[in-house]
Specification:
five-stranded mixed beta sheet; 405 residues; binds iron/sulfur cluster; 9 strands; 24 helices; four-stranded parallel beta sheet
């Protein structure tokens, strides 16, 4: 075995039923940029019939890791696990400067100190002027300026805090703050804790800040991802539920057994990991306190919809808010181009996917787009500001908190 068990690759029967759901195939029209084409490439690499040339690596790099192909596949191909196995393998075949650049990006985004330093300008920025600048900036600078425009105002950290349950306690949830990008959304994490407490859940935020390893894995940094996952395991304790502020983290927590197959401590993590919206839906909220008069369309983050199968729960929770009306968003579960670090490493294709998403948002007639993932929020909000759209991009947790807390 070179990087993945060959039988995993053999489960693809090349039917092509996944092609229409693959954002990169839909945009580029190249078989090698489709799930089927990439599985074909991975199989040839695994069987040593193909070398990891720059062209081959390019096709794998262009994969968003959105897992829309898994949802579409009738044969149960676990594409996410295939591409996660291939990424560290191709990493070792990249030219040195590119390899170092990606390792540095993973280090910055997943380290508490470096991440906080990198995010500091975004916290200071928080302004629409960056959106105007993004419109005129060269392609490489646009994602960074859009992120600056979309960053929410700073909020108090939750580190080490406990939120007691209101009324009868139905269990304890450990709330992971996550690494730098998630922590930009401290206000939303606060709202998450308040909502869970209102629903009768005691919420504990660990004293030690950890990163689950998802962004490192996305960049092919398997060693770093495993080290971060082990550090995260140490803070998980025996809470009834483990919730995190980012869909990508939640999806990985549910698959820690794949990342750390030899670690006995992972056994209960998948069972306890929940997206906060799924948990709120499962246990139910008390009657709302206020109405929220907005027309809301839901964007389904890939790692929530395809990675965790959570879609209807978000809509049902929002539909329970008085005054809030739900409207349809075409291609709601089509990737917005954020995809972990994709908008930073593949800015051109990410911008095409973002433009496609914004076209659908304009056509929806919604005045709010609910997006339950920090990466999607930053990407779509930055794009909406740069395009000058009169639409707010909010986390569904914040919309629910306006009604229930
Ligand atoms: S991944 Fe699934 S849907 Fe796509 S070609 Fe293979 S078997 Fe068919
Ligand atoms: S993960 Fe997404 S981008 Fe990658 S092959 Fe599957 S559908 Fe296409």
């Amino acid at each position: 075995m070179r990087f993945v068990e060959p039988e995993r690759l053999l489960s693809c029967v090349h039917c092509g039923l996944c092609l229409a759901s693959c954002p990169t195939y839909v945009e580029l029209g190249e078989e090698a940029d489709s799930p089927r084409g990439r599985i074909h490439l991975m199989r040839a690499l695994e069987e040593r019939r193909l070398d990891p040339t720059p062209a081959v690596i390019r096709h794998l790099d262009r994969c968003l890791g959105c897992r829309a192909c898994e949802t579409a596949c009738p044969s149960g191909v676990e594409y996410g696990k295939l591409i996660e196995a291939a990424r560290p393998f191709v990493e070792s075949h990249r030219p040195g400067p590119a390899r170092l650049g990606r390792a540095a990006l993973a280090a910055v985004l997943t380290s508490p100190v470096l991440g906080a330093l990198a995010m500091a300008p975004l916290r200071l920025a928080g302004g629409r002027r960056f959106g105007r600048l993004a419109r005129r900036a060269p392609g490489w600078a646009r994602p960074w300026l859009s992120l600056a425009a979309a960053a929410p105002p700073p909020a108090e950290s939750l580190v080490g805090k406990t939120f007691e349950a209101e009324g009868e306690c139905r269990g304890t949830a450990l709330l992971l703050e996550g690494c730098a990008p998630s922590r930009l959304f401290s206000g939303t994490l606060h709202a998450t804790a308040n909502l869970l407490a209102r629903a009768g859940v005691r919420v504990v935020v660990p004293r030690d800040r950890t990163c689950c390893g998802a962004l490192a894995l996305h960049l092919g940094q398997l060693g770093r991802a495993r080290r971060l996952a082990r550090e995260t395991l140490r803070v998980l304790g025996d809470a009834d539920w483990i919730v995190s502020g980012a869909a990508g983290c939640g999806a990985l927590l549910r698959e820690y057994d794949h990342l750390l197959p030899d670690d006995a401590a992972v056994a209960s993590v998948a069972r306890r990991a929940r997206d906060p919206l799924a948990l709120l839906h499962e246990i139910g909220l008390p009657p709302p306190r206020r109405s929220v008069d907005r027309r809301v369309a839901v964007h389904d983050p890939c790692h929530l919809a395809h990675g965790q199968g959570v879609r209807a729960e978000v809509r049902r929770l929002l539909a329970g808010v008085p005054g809030l009306s739900l409207v349809d968003l075409d291609e709601a579960d089509f990737c917005c181009g954020s995809a972990g670090t994709y908008n930073l490493t593949e800015p051109a294709l990410a911008a095409r996917l973002l433009a496609r998403k914004l076209d659908r948002i304009e056509a929806s007639g919604a005045d709010v787009i609910a997006a339950a993932n920090p990466g999607c929020l930053l990407q779509i909000r930055g794009g909406a500001i740069a395009r000058g759209l009169d639409v707010a991009i909010e986390h569904p947790i914040d919309l629910l908190a306006a009604a229930y807390v």
